[in-house]
Amino acid sequence: MSLGSPLGSGRPTPGPAVASRPVVASYATYAEAQRAVDYLSDEKFPVQFLGILGRDLRIEEAVLGRMDWGKAAVSGLIQGVWYGLFVGLLISLFAQQPGTVILGCAVLGLAFGVGLGLLSYSLTGGHRDFVSRSAITATSYDVVCTWDHLEQAKSVLAGLDTTTT
């Protein structure tokens, strides 16, 4: 059972799950699969019968560097200042001296950010002493469709020029 579109009624949409639908076409990248669905939409194909299915998912994690006390403090400082500025801007809408409120909230955010950054680093206990960025990727992306519209989707998609991106 899938959820309805945010633009729709919000009721569950009947029909098979995306994973059990037949494949219209396969692509090496998500951008290519999106381009195919966009093309079908431009050609007035009823796209509510389509889906994009990533195959062979994997997590890729790039290690960016070591974490230490100084980096934990700087990271907390930056995050704290941003949160402080945001809160300060919101509060300043109702304040008589908005500049003072914004500056005060930024300083409080700085202090709390540094403290929380150092606290969270100390709680790791020496484990995971590195900074990384991770992403979920797939080896291929299938554009899938309901059985009722499969042949129509294939014939429309045959007109897509695959030489340009």
Protein architecture, described:
- By secondary structure, this protein is α+β, with helices and mostly antiparallel strands.
- It has two domains: 18-57 and 138-157, no CATH class; 61-134, no CATH class.
- It is 43% helix and 21% strand.
- The protein contains four helices and five strands, in the order E-H-E-E-H-H-E-E-H.
- The protein has helices at 30-42, 69-92, 98-123, 150-157, and strands spanning 23-27, 50-55, 58-66, 130-137, 140-145.
- Helix 2 (69-92) runs antiparallel to helix 3 (98-123).
- The model is unreliable at 1-5 (pLDDT under 50).
Structure, briefly:
This protein has 165 residues and is of the alpha+beta class. It has helices at residues 30-42, 69-92, 98-123, 150-157, and strands spanning 23-27, 50-55, 58-66, 130-137, 140-145.
Secondary structure layout:
Layout: E1 23-27, H1 30-42, E2 50-55, E3 58-66, H2 69-92, H3 98-123, E4 130-137, E5 140-145, H4 150-157
Antiparallel strand pairs: 1-5, 2-5, 3-4
Helix pairs in contact: 2-3
Order of helices and strands: EHEEHHEEH
Helical content stands at: 40-55%
Strand content: 15-25%
Mean of all residue-level pLDDT scores = 88
Strands, total number? 5
Provide tags for this entry.
disordered N terminus; 43% helix; 165 residues; 5 strands; single chain; two-stranded antiparallel sheet; elongated; 2 domains; alpha+beta
